[in-house]
Design goal:
It is built from five helices and eight strands. It is of the alpha+beta class and 179 residues long.
């Protein structure tokens, strides 16, 4: 977006909520039905110009930039959508990502060779370049599994890998709108 801001097209309020508050949609309950169905275009322009992260920046720099934009989206949700939140506690299943008995077989990322990039080409296949375990577990795996994923790998570096799995048929059917 302009001045290092954010331009979002055709997004739902639910998608804005999950980005702004760093939660998954399964962690949000209540609210009107249009949170998931009505689409909006959002243009955020920061008061002070920022430089958009270039390819090859560290995952932490990317997270910092996302955090600032998340705070801007929170302000839009409060001011333009009159959002009011309240916290509740519910028990949810939790998953743990661990290393296999033989250890990690992932390739360490070579600095300066692009990334970080995490792309889902088709359901059940992810390609990663310069990704740390937090980037893998938090947004991607937790969304695919419908619950939080805790990183227990002990891996601290950035990696390049291709992850392929057979999607759960039940989850796939739930993703398809009825009618």
């Amino acid at each position: 977006g302009p001045r290092g801001g954010l331009s979002i097209q055709n997004t739902t309020v639910m998608q804005l909520l999950t980005f702004a508050y760093k939660v998954r949609d399964y962690q949000i309950s209540g609210g009107p039905g249009w949170l998931k169905t009505d689409h909006f275009d959002i243009l955020l322009t920061p008061a002070t110009a920022e430089i958009n992260p270039e390819p090859g920046v560290s995952p932490q720099t990317l997270r910092d930039h996302d955090n600032r934009n998340g705070q801007r989206i929170q302000a839009v949700l409060r001011n333009r959508f009159s959002l009011v939140l309240r916290s509740e506690y519910h028990e949810l299943p939790i998953y743990a990502l661990t290393q296999a008995k033989g250890g990690s077989k992932m390739t360490l990322h070579v600095e300066g060779s692009g990334g970080p990039s995490l792309q889902m080409r088709v359901r059940g296949q992810v390609e990663a370049l310069g990704v740390d375990m937090q980037m893998l577990t938090s947004p991607l795996l937790s969304q695919q599994l419908g619950g939080p994923v805790k990183d227990e790998t002990g891996l601290t570096g950035q990696y390049d890998f291709k992850l392929t799995w057979t999607p759960d048929v039940q989850a796939t059917q739930n993703d398809v709108p009825a009618g």
